[in-house]
Amino acid sequence: MQLAVASTIQIIEKIGTDLSSPDKKALAMNLLSGFYDKVFLVVDIPVVPNVLEPIIHKYVKAFLMVLVGASIDAMVTTFRNAGIFMKKNYTTGGINI
């Protein structure tokens, strides 16, 4: 999950230069939610009846999306502190390093 989050936010940071930070996070959340839907919803849980699987997947996804949101915030902060992402200075239009 962490690798998917890190890769997604790095790609969005490179190509989404005209997006605000909240827009970038929303885009990342949508992409990762779609990834979950495509990959994990088709996984069969062996001991759970098929009738209950959608309910379990729903709650697992909700929990994972909370973790993804927190992971995005933590990774962006880490990338900024490490100098991978530069923080924008919106008052002067310049860039702070």
Overall average pLDDT = 84
The total number of structural domains is 1
Quaternary organization: single chain
SSE run: HHHEE
Instruction: Please estimate the helix content.
Output: 55-70%
| Rg from Cα | 17 Å
The largest sheet has its strands arranged as 1-2
Structural class by SSE content = mainly alpha
End-to-end distance: 29 Å
Tell me, what's the shape?
elongated
Give me the number of helical elements: 3
Q: Any low-confidence stretches, pLDDT <50, length ≥5? A: 90-97
Largest sheet: 2 strands, antiparallel
Name the features.
two-stranded antiparallel ribbon; single chain; elongated; 3 helices; 97 residues; 4% strand
Summarize the structure in short:
By secondary structure, the protein is mainly alpha-helical. 64% of the residues lie in helices and 4% in strands. It contains three helices and two strands.
Walkthrough of the structure:
The structure is a single chain. The chain has one domain (2-96). Helices cover 64% and strands 4% of the residues. The chain contains 3 helices and 2 strands, in the order αααββ. Strands 1-2 form a two-stranded antiparallel ribbon. β1 (87-88) and β2 form a beta hairpin.
Layout of helices and strands, plus pairs?
Blueprint (H helix, E strand, L loop, with lengths): L1 H14 L5 H19 L13 H29 L5 E2 L6 E2 L1
Antiparallel strand pairs: 1-2
Helix pairs in contact: 1-2, 1-3, 2-3
